[in-house]
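agent> fetching stored inputs for the PRP docking request
agent> found them:
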Amino acid sequence: MNNDILKTLYSEEDIKQACKKLGKQISEDYKGKTPIIIGVLKGAIFFMTDMVREMDIYTKLDFIDVSSYNGGTKSSGSVKLIKDIDIDVNGQDIIFMEDIIDTGRTLKYLKELLADRGANSIKVCTLMDKPEGRVVEVKADYVGFEVPNEFVVGYGLDYDGKYRNLPYVGVLKPKIYSDQ
Ligand SMILES: O=P(O)(O)OC[C@H]1O[C@H](OP(=O)(O)OP(=O)(O)O)[C@H](O)[C@@H]1O
Ligand SMILES: Nc1nc2[nH]cnc2c(=O)[nH]1
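agent> prediction call returned; pasting tokens
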């Protein structure tokens, strides 16, 4: 699997440091509160589990699964809800945990969904933000890294369902892609 990677963008150590920094910041901002941390499956699994262990506040955890990429490198344009959260978010403070914000479609959909359900506040923490990919306007509140306009894999992010278990974030060799 490692042989398919052209270059590493963020090492395990880079990611660990980013989680520490963001976890400290969130702990300060939410002191005395119990935010509901919602992991956006599947890409955010590793980031979410690393992040919550860097937070020194009470939290409740839930997961939501939406998809718009169908396994390839291009957004299909429509976001589908695959698995909903269990917690009632009415009046609650929400922090979405994302691995990456690219076109912004996923996040826009999620923020609107929870705003409609009466959440008190909705913030977004993402490991990576790719501003050049943006199609709809949406902003993250906590960002680990601003990434160049390249398709990245690893640390939860997939290509064709694979590479999620790479412990770092990298870019694939061009010969690997079948849809470019
Ligand atoms: O800003 P966007 O262009 O909407 O892209 C961001 C979303 O794309 C990926 O999810 P994907 O739909 O591929 O599902 P996955 O997390 O299960 O891989 C990623 O995990 C984000 O949730
Ligand atoms: N794996 C992966 N999924 C994404 N979803 C949106 N952008 C990306 C990306 O760069 N890589």
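agent> quick read of the result: Residues 65 and 82 are 5 Å apart (CA to CA).
agent> awaiting further instructions
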